[in-house]
Design goal:
Helices cover 53% and strands 26% of the residues. By secondary structure, it is α+β, with helices and mostly antiparallel strands. The model has no long low-confidence stretch (mean pLDDT 83).
């Protein structure tokens, strides 16, 4: 009989512990998944807004090239992918080309 009363009292406390655990899980997910992703997106957006002629970039499709012209009114960037071959892409699909950084790290 005492066991039944104890289990009933413990059941009321489990709802509070459930909510505390859910909040803790959400906080952990926020700090380890959502927040770093937002920082990464902000860095990419800052790079895209600071593009200049001569910057080495890679498109979302994997095409490497050098920025030749940036049109801020239409958000279109012209990229030279080979000598004399220029393509136009949307500014949102251009990312930093980090191959030079990787080569410098290997040489160290």
């Amino acid at each position: 009989m005492n066991t039944a009363i104890f289990l009933q009292q413990a059941g009321g406390g489990s709802m509070l512990s459930f909510w505390i655990m859910m909040i803790a899980i959400f906080a952990i997910m926020w700090f380890f998944m959502i927040r770093p992703q937002q920082k990464r997106q902000k860095e990419i957006r800052n790079f895209q807004n600071s593009l200049q002629e001569g910057s080495k970039v890679v498109t979302g499709g994997g095409i490497y090239g050098t920025v030749k012209r940036v049109d801020l009114t239409t958000n279109v960037i012209e990229i030279e992918i080979a000598r004399g071959i220029v393509i136009s892409v949307d500014k949102g699909s251009v990312f930093a080309d980090n191959t030079d950084l990787a080569m410098q790290n290997r040489q160290k």
